[in-house]
Write a structure and sequence with these properties.
five-stranded antiparallel sheet, Jelly Rolls, 3 domains, 255 residues, globular, mainly beta
Length: 255
């Protein structure tokens, strides 16, 4: 299609409220006003906690109180939430100080932020501290960019020291720290969920001489092979980029 040569008829909106289905609920669930909300890997709303990977979507509007939704399947019209998308939000962050202004904020549960994500399982990024308004209360400029701003914010994630683990599309463009103390198998996000240019950077942080085996999801390839198993010494690192159909190692520093 050629570029426009006249006015383009397009719709637009500046509204700050959205209504969307939530993920499958196993039991009746209350969503509390102003609690954090994410979009999970299936594209539905989920609680903004540390139980799964998501991108920040907003907070519960709760105009008529705390909405309670029944157990049902995602996509059911009875499972709709009104979401507010403010630019800033006051959030509890233990010990936050004015010297923390500018630091990244991650969700530890749907009402609490943290500045250090090393103890979190999923490291879901929500924004930056822009002010401290009271003891343990920060004003956070929220980020709706997804995946940590597609790399521009330097968002990171720490994996567990042991056990087979997997990354999702919501981990794309993050730095993945690997404090493994035993051989570790790590499955990459499905290449079909990526776009050309999406990246993952891996850094081994521990001195244990134990290898990390990166494995492509299903039959996905990394430099023509389904696995990459050369990250095995402290400070080893590698950056992978998606072509949209495979992973390519574009930089590596392997001892």
């Amino acid at each position: 299609m050629a570029n426009a040569t006249s006015i383009v008829a397009k719709g637009g909106s500046d509204r700050r409220y959205f209504r969307r289905s939530v993920e499958t609920l196993a039991a009746e669930t209350t969503f509390y006003k102003h609690a954090l909300i994410g979009l999970d890997s299936t594209g539905y709303y989920c609680k903004g906690d540390d139980t799964q990977s998501w991108v920040f979507a907003g907070v519960v509007r709760g105009e008529s109180g705390n909405p309670k939704l029944p157990a049902a399947t995602a996509g059911d019209d009875s499972l709709m939430l009104d979401i507010w998308c403010p630019e800033y939000l006051e959030l509890y962050i233990s010990g936050v100080a004015v010297t923390d202004i500018g630091k990244k904020v991650y969700a530890s549960d749907d009402q609490t932020g943290v500045l250090s994500n090393s103890s979190l399982t999923y490291a879901n990024f929500i924004g930056h501290v822009v002010d401290v308004v009271a003891s343990n209360i920060a004003l956070v400029k929220l980020s709706y960019d997804g995946n940590g701003g597609h790399g521009k914010y330097g968002v990171s994630k720490w994996m567990a020291a042991t056990g087979a683990q997997s990354l999702t599309k919501h981990d794309l463009n993050k730095t993945i720290f690997l404090p493994n103390t035993a051989a570790l198998a790590l499955t990459l996000p499905a290449i079909a969920t990526t776009q050309a240019g999406d990246r993952l950077t891996f850094v081994k942080t521990t001195s244990d001489a134990q290898a990390i085996t990166l494995t492509g999801n299903s039959s996905d390839n990394i430099d023509g092979s389904n696995t990459l198993a050369t990250i095995d010494a402290q400070y080893d690192c590698a950056t992978l980029v998606s072509t949209g159909s495979a992973w390519i190692v574009v930089a590596r520093d392997i001892a």
